[in-house]
Design brief:
The chain is α/β, with parallel strands linked by helices. It has 9 helices and 12 strands. Helix 4 packs across helix 5. The protein binds adenosine-5'-triphosphate. Part of the ABC transporter complex HmuTUV involved in hemin import. Responsible for energy coupling to the transport system.
Length: 267
């Protein structure tokens, strides 16, 4: 996946990145390239560094070694506002404890685009309405976020990120609390955004089979390193799953889902 940097090149490029919170490195010598208009999924065991990787890619933390480039320019040189106009994150940890309404929370996604000391204009309001309709959050738009179920809240946070209208979208276990119907609805929506708007999506998944159906590329991580990465059809196999998760599986192409799927057995 690694390639030379060019102005029209990748959206994100990591060059030999390492990072530690304390003494032990959590990410070790990671080099990756993310091209525009593709859906990437990051998979791997608990604690292998998936969320930490997304945090580095959005500039919440800086690498101890190596460099991160966003659209050809080192991330360290980007302002917070410019990053917010370029990358939206649906975080695993979204604690909203103030009783904002759903509509107010989704409108927060427009903030990087609203000039300082200004109010949202008609365009912002229209955008929020359109996203609420697409995500099914319009049915509870006036309810307090603090009074919603886990899945409803997650849909609301997803809608806020979509409203941010960024070319790059990070999803960190963004569907973990959603039922299958809402998960499929939003994954189809994301896929549409990737193909119609040329958005780049990087999603952390625990469900290998969902990742396989929706992703163009898979990145398997293990103990802070990239264990395997490449086009989904090439890396979605039993040997990789066993190496990364230490579980046996049977992996084969499935006609119905039109993707390679893994089966597991008890015992
Ligand atoms: N703020 C922190 N301070 C110290 N260590 C941390 C901190 N955040 C995460 N870690 C550690 O870094 C490692 C990687 O954590 P990370 O959250 O990136 O894993 P993950 O792959 O996203 O895990 P999961 O699948 O459980 O969400 C873990 O061992 C974790 O305990």
């Amino acid at each position: 996946m690694k390639q030379a940097l060019t102005p029209t090149g990748p959206d994100i490029f990591l060059d030999n990145v390492s990072f530690a919170y304390e003494k032990e490195p959590v990410l070790k010598e990671i080099s990756l390239t993310f091209e525009p208009g593709r859906f990437y999924s990051i998979l791997g065991p608990n604690g292998c560094g998936k969320t930490t990787l997304l945090d580095l890619l959005i500039g919440h933390m800086t690498p101890d070694k190596g460099r991160v480039f966003l659209r050809g320019k080192e991330l360290a040189a980007w302002s917070r506002k410019k990053i917010a106009r370029t990358i939206a994150l649906v975080s695993q940890n979204y604690n909203i404890n103030f009783p904002f309404t759903v509509e107010e929370v989704i409108m927060m996604g427009r903030h990087p685009w609203i000039p300082r000391f200004s109010q949202p204009d008609q365009k912002d309001m229209d955008r929020v309405k359109a996203v609420m309709a697409r995500t099914g959050t319009d049915t509870f738009h006036d309810r307090k976020i603090t009074a919603l179920s886990g899945g409803e809240r997650q849909r609301c946070v997803f809608a806020r990120a979509l409203c941010q209208d960024t070319p790059i979208l990070f999803l960190d276990e963004a569907f973990s609390n959603m039922d299958i119907s809402h998960t499929l609805r939003l994954l189809n929506l994301v896929k549409e955004e990737v193909s119609m708007q040329n958005r780049t999506v990087i999603s952390v998944f625990h469900d290998i089979n969902l990742a396989s159906i929706w992703s163009d590329h898979l990145i398997f991580m293990k103990q802070g390193r990239v264990a395997a990465c490449g086009p989904t059809d090439e890396v979605m196999n039993a040997a990789v799953i066993e190496e990364v998760f230490q579980v046996e599986s049977h992996v084969a192409y499935n006609e119905y889902s039109r993707a390679r799927q893994a089966c597991f057995k008890a015992g």
